[in-house]
Amino acid sequence: MKGLWIRNANVYLPDRVLTGGSVYAVGGRIARICGPEDGPPAKPGDADEVWDAEGLSLVPGFVDVHVHGGGGADVMDAADDDEAIGRIARFHALHGTTSFLATTMTAPRNELERAVDGVVRAMERGVAAGGAEVLGLHLEGPFLNPRRCGAQNPALIRPFDRDEMEDLLARGRGAVRLVTLAPECGDALRRIGALRDRGVTVSIGHSEADSETVRRAIEAGASHVTHLFNAMNPLHHREPGIVGAALLRDELTVELICDGFHVHPDVVKLVFAVKHRDKIALVTDAIAAAGMPDGDGYRLGGLPVAVKEGKAVLRDSGNLAGSCLTMDRALKQAVAFTGLTLAEVLPALTINPSRQIGADDRKGSIEVGKDADLVALGPDLTVVRTYVKGVRVDG
């Protein structure tokens, strides 16, 4: 089987940057990595595609564990539209995302079930071919705190229901990889361990848990925080809450939305200065409006959304309503906000999120044996070319 040969790139490996390096992929996986002194990894005739990257930066594909939509499509549309997930996957792939978790919203039980069914169908039929790979589902709700609903519909938020959760897991057929819940509400805290034991990463979010409840959630198996600072109680000097625990506890990986609206640039810099770098995951929290024109005709979780100059808010309350962010822009802004190098920020978009959902055996880094999910970046960190499992994504 012939493959892909990318040569003359600055290849970002886990421990160093290989200048003038080459990557050879066969069957969608990385077969060989070598430097200019090692000789070519293959003969030109042995590859379907040979590309001279001309000194561009070749980095691992971005892994986004929090995506509601993009390119005009919403994950919840998958209930009725078999093409919705494919449109989302193709849109984000053009911005360097090579794999993601399709993220649902709080909705009536039957609608949520149908959306999960739709995502699973999309994964099984491969309708996302030509775009980013759908690694599974992130259930953001419905077991949240209505007082920290953010852009979720508070009327539809409900206490943790074991039967409903079990039904969603069964429908997901192993695809549910991440669940956001408020541990202080209902029976959620007691159920964290059971979710962890099923291979689900449990995230604290849309919550106003105090620091003691967060401690208990961590002990039960919670290991993630959904969009740190947003839809949660703020840091207080007498009650550090979720934010304080998230910054101090190494057990927790934190999501950051680096769009300049959700978190102030200086706070992003603070997180990178205080938190262990391998415990930060950049996400988009992108909605259907990502990549679309400004306007007030969008919806999120059934609620009307207006977008102006790239900022999405609920039309009625003015609450931020997800984002119009893409991972390439998140990377650029994180580098600008923190003053760190590409190599220092890159794990937050690649290996860190991969590890959080148990996909780091094949995603998140350029290593022999892993999927050939590769992104070529220009000097200004603009995406020049994306490959998903060795196949080029065409714009």
Automatic annotation (TrEMBL):
Q: Name one Pfam family in it.
A: Amidohydro_1
What PANTHER family does this protein's entry cite? N-ACETYLGLUCOSAMINE-6-PHOSPHATE DEACETYLASE
Which family does this protein fall into?
A: Belongs to the metallo-dependent hydrolases superfamily. NagA family.
What InterPro entries does this protein map onto? Amidohydro-rel, GlcNAc_6-P_deAcase, Metal-dep_hydrolase_composite, Metal_Hydrolase
Q: Which residues cross the membrane?
A: none
Spell out the coiled coil positions from the record. none
According to UniProt, the name of this protein is N-acetylglucosamine-6-phosphate deacetylase, Carbohydrate Esterase Family 9
Record keywords: Hydrolase included? yes
Q: Which keywords fit this entry according to its UniProt record?
A: Carbohydrate metabolism, Hydrolase, Metal-binding
**Which part of the chain is the Amidohydrolase-related domain?**
58-393
Supply the gene name.
Answer: txxe 1080-nagA
